Amino acid sequence: MGNLNKEMWVENRVREDQIKKYLRPDGSDFINDKQIETELNNGSNPDNKYIRDIISKSLAIETLTPEETAALLNVEDPEMWKEMEVAAGQIKRKVYDNRIVTFAPLYLSTACVNNCLYCGLRTDNNAVRRGVLSVEEVKREIEVLAGTIGHKRLIIVYGEHPESDVDYMANTMEAIYNVKASVKGGETSIRRVNVNAAPLSTEDLKRLNQIGIGTYQVFQETYHHNTYNVVHPPSTIKGNFRWRLYCMHRALEAGIDDVGIGALFGLYDWKFEVMGLLHHAIELEEKFGIGPHTISFPRLEPAENTPFTLNSKYQVSDEDFRKIVTVLRLAVPYTGMILTARENSKMRRSLIPYGITQTDASSKIGLGAYNSYEGSNQQADRQQFILGDTRSLDEVVRELAQMGHITSFCTAGYRCGRTGQCIMDLLRTGAEGKFCKLNAVITYREWLDDFASDTTKEIGEKIITKEIEEIREKMPAIFDDFMNYYTKTAEGQRDLYF
Ligand code: SF4
Q1: What is the pLDDT of residue 375?
Q2: Which of 61, 157, 182, 255 has the most other CB atoms within 10 Å of its CB?
Q3: What pLDDT was estimated at residue 58?
């Protein structure tokens, strides 16, 4: 594509009509920086009784107000933080039990027209080799991800570029779903494709919805308007704060009812960003009756030839990061929370009990990396940033089992309509856990038999035995049906689910 065509493509990306329709009557958007600052200032020195009342509300799986969330963020008493962490863990178990869903990231393109200061893939960064995978190359990645490692769920990532536009997205998503990888004389496949991509128009989103997009994930990066304008040059598509801010509105309107929001922590004050995420969740709940299916909270990580990542004055300490996880869990108790391999293994281990519901493993983020280079080597000049944890899926599943968690490979939800409003209701009442527990055990059986090392399998069997007993005790009405599916799976049938 010539430069002129590329410029025209860039020029036509933002659809002002698809922003204006959502703005408030006074022309403002739903992130009011001054209001958030006031909320944070008014929430200082909260007393313990007030904080405990707020915790009770969280435990009833109700979304907190901005005032309540600001009060939590302003707690200074270390003992009270411990109480909040315990409550966060209780909420996680109440809504999601001991399940951790796992997935792998897959970068399909690293060409990008934007120039975000913190990103290794920014267009001005000549130190990074980039490209766009062909459909054949994508299939080869899937053979490894599904056939060798055993992943069932992906988050696929696209740079914003005319070579990876919606046609490319549609073709590659279809290709991924169609790959049947060989495993132990049978077949396996990727069953849920979540997408992390640039904000798209409603029309483009409808198209991806028809192909079976799982969760559509776009991070606002920072909710602070001024900071947003500094780190995203205004001449770029991404420089348009509101085009990004309202992309989940467009997704929900397009019928994609699992949407994932996030902020990149380290660009601005972390308390402000937590408030931004909360306001975003509340806005979606008010407008569509559906909050975010997931919230992500990546921290800035080093990237090739990207000094901003090392010099930002808003870097988040480990201690504050723990507070971010705790407060988000309490503020939006029903949402899924994703902790990725950006964080090192120690950090991931310590945070999982406080509210994490999804995590990745065996992650490689270089273009074509699963198929083209061995082991856990990272290649900085092919990646958006450097990962903190490159352990294999087998190691992560084993560690989770040692911690008492069952890794769920379940992808049933969106395939049988448990998405959007339906999943929100199930999550709020704790009923979703019933389906998910059954499917977690069945898919865990499948993965242990097809992919686990002997050591992991041995530890996994103990988890399975415990889970089956729990199902027998807590769900007697469905136990026989469950055992029927479980036995068939143990005998070699695949992809059975409730
Ligand atoms: Fe492009 Fe995303 Fe990197 Fe910005 S953060 S330069 S949009 S890949």
Answers
A1: 65
A2: 157
A3: 98
Domain presence at residue 221? yes
Give the residues surrounding ligand 1 with Cβ less than 6 Å away. 112, 114, 116, 119, 121-122, 159-160, 238
Cα 241 to ligand 1 centroid, rounded to whole Å: 14
**119 C-alpha to ligand 1 centroid (Å):** 6
Q: What is the pLDDT of residue 174?
A: 98
Residue 114 Cα to ligand 1 middle (Å): 6
302's tokens: 């080093």
181: domain range?
3-23+90-391
Question: 197: CA distance to ligand 1 center in Å?
Answer: 9
From the alpha carbon of 221, which atom of ligand 1 is closest? 5
Distance 198 CA to ligand 1 centre (A): 8
Task: State the CATH number of the domain containing residue 18.
Answer: 3.20.20.70
Query: For position 45, what pLDDT does the model report?
Result: 85
Give the chain's residues under pLDDT 50: none
- Give me the number of domains the chain comprises: 1
Nearest CA among 451, 429, 444 for reference residue 489? 444
Predicted pLDDT of residue 486: 96
Asked if residue 100 belongs to a domain, the reply is yes
401 occurs within a structural domain: no
pTM for this predicted structure: 0.95
Please give the Cα distance from 75 to 80 (Å, whole number).
Answer: 7
Is 52 contained in some domain?
no
